[in-house]
Design a protein that fits this description.
This protein is α/β, with parallel strands linked by helices. Helix content is 45%, strand content 12%. A 5-stranded parallel β-sheet has the order 5-2-1-6-9. α6 crosses α7, α10 packs across α15 and α12 packs across α21.
């Protein structure tokens, strides 16, 4: 293949008819949403929902902000923000070009540009996909971590923030000073009550900075949401395949599955896109949907990622093909997690569980177990530990859930079953590495990890049954390995 031209507004007309393109004029699209954390998930999910609506209202374009790296900006700016969304299943791939991202900023390079955009009256929504660790909070309590280095910095340097929290508070401060109403905060991260958590953390930060400002922020709209779509990291092979299909180069296409879901609480004082026309569901209380997704999908995902990685499975589909894995995951969802969920009248829970298993088996999605395994210390409280607390309270079994937590401990120690180093990506990686260094006995390893009260709280470490379940599960993993442990569930 010869040298290809780059996807951009100038070249979009060269796309073959098999590739869907925006059904609206790109020129008049203007920014109405600032999105913090312009990563793959946002571009597969919220940006795609918004793209479907710009033909009827072009004032809801997105300014995507990278809070850490310039990679996304550098990839998409030469493409005028355009990128390809490849929806994949076992039968093939459908390609669409998304045009809703009309501006890209890199916060570390120019925080003032980000603040100006957030303070602009045209910005009516600030949305976030910054992952659990981006909230600079204590995952066990959902409160601000006042000692977090970025929080310490942002309190001392309010005009040059580093954290999403610092940017939000400074931007609202500027809007209040200019007589402009605050924007709506829209968290799209996998946190229970994500809107409530964000509002609490932002208010706590503002209280430390200026109690009068905190009083204003207490009244800012911050609806909770539930988001769902599996989005693997893009590979060079994906880029080549997309380029071959399009006849144009795309530096950062996004690969995803056909399934998508977005449930949103209705609270947008300054207006919002008509996302319901693109399939979003607006409700008064998102918590039941949220618990269902976090505990069934995300809890299963983390469990199979740690066990699968330890057993040598590179992707979720590979992990699902391991003997015993599907039986383990199905049992975890049906017997241990489902009884902890609130009722959703009219919702077919068995069908949802079956759909999750089918999605996990999707061979076209090369979703790496290592990618899902990242940031375990931030994910476990809402994905697994909440279910375990409920099972303990009900005096019911949770062996599969405990195995998922034990597999994280085994993984997070940093050596795989062949003694090779694991690249453990976690905000507490250094701390974890020192916890159980030189310890081989499962009871001592468990006790070392249970000192992480910001992960486990104070109640779970004090629970003798919980400690015993973890020791039993970890002992089996250390003695027999992950693959043999899984086979016992398929017997």
């Amino acid at each position: 293949m010869g040298l290809l031209m780059r996807l951009s507004r100038k070249t979009i007309d060269r796309l073959p008819p098999t590739v869907k393109r925006p059904d609206y004029d790109l020129a008049p699209v203007s920014v109405g949403i600032v999105h913090l954390g312009i990563g793959a998930f946002h571009r597969a999910h919220q940006a795609a929902y918004t793209d479907a609506l710009l033909s009827e209202n072009p004032s809801w374009g997105i300014c995507g902000v990278s809070l850490r790296s310039s990679e996304t900006r550098d990839a998409l700016q030469p493409q005028d923000g355009l990128y390809t969304l490849a929806v994949q299943d076992g039968e093939g791939s459908d390609l669409s070009v998304i045009g809703s991202v009309v501006e890209l900023l890199c916060a570390p390079e120019d925080p003032e540009a980000v603040l100006r955009r957030m303070a602009d009256p045209a910005t009516r929504i600030v949305s976030l996909t910054i992952t659990e660790k981006g909230y600079c909070h204590n995952p066990a309590t959902g409160t601000l971590d006042e000692g977090h280095p970025d929080i310490v910095h942002d309190l001392a340097n309010p005009a040059r923030p580093r954290s999403a929290i610092g940017f939000i508070v400074e931007a609202i401060s500027r809007r209040v000073s200019a007589g402009i109403a605050p924007f709506t905060l829209l968290s799209c991260d996998n946190l229970p009550g994500n809107g409530h958590v964000l509002k609490r953390i932002v208010t706590q930060f503002a209280e430390l900075r200026d109690p009068a400002l905190a009083a204003v922020i207490r009244n800012v709209a911050s609806p909770s949401t539930m988001v769902d779509r599996i989005v693997p990291a893009t590979t060079d092979g994906d880029r080549s395949a997309v380029a071959a299909a399009m006849g144009l180069e795309d530096a950062w296409p996004i690969m995803t599955e056909p399934f998508r879901q977005w449930v949103i609480e209705e609270d947008f004082p300054l207006g919002r896109p008509a996302w319901e026309k693109a399939g979003a569901l607006f409700v008064q209380d998102v918590s039941a949907f949220e618990f269902m997704k976090l505990r069934l999908l995300n809890g299963s995902h983390s469990t199979l990622a740690y066990l699968g990685y330890l057993a040598g499975a590179e992707t979720v589909a590979d992990a699902m093909s391991l003997p015993g894995m599907e039986a383990l995951v199905e049992g975890l969802m049906r017997h241990e997690v489902s009884p902890t969920l609130p009722e959703l009248p009219g919702f077919d829970l068995p069908a949802y569980r079956a759909e999750l298993l089918q999605r996990f088996r999707n061979p076209a999605l090369r979703h790496r177990t290592w990618q899902i395994a990242m940031d375990g210390s931030q994910k476990l409280p809402q994905r697994l530990l909440g279910s375990i607390r409920d099972r303990l309270h009900a005096e019911a079994g949770y062996d599969r859930l405990a195995l998922g937590v034990a597999a994280w401990m085994r993984y997070a120690r940093g050596l795989d079953e062949a003694g090779r180093p694991i690249d453990v990506r976690d905000p507490h990686a250094a701390r974890i590495a020192g916890l159980a260094q030189g310890i081989d006995e499962p009871d001592r390893i468990v006790d070392a990890f249970l000192t992480m009260t910001d992960v486990f709280g104070t109640d779970l470490p004090a629970s003798a049954p919980f400690r015993a379940a973890l020791i039993k599960a970890l002992d089996g993993l250390l003695r027999n390995g992950s693959a043999a442990t899984l086979r016992s569930y398929g017997a």
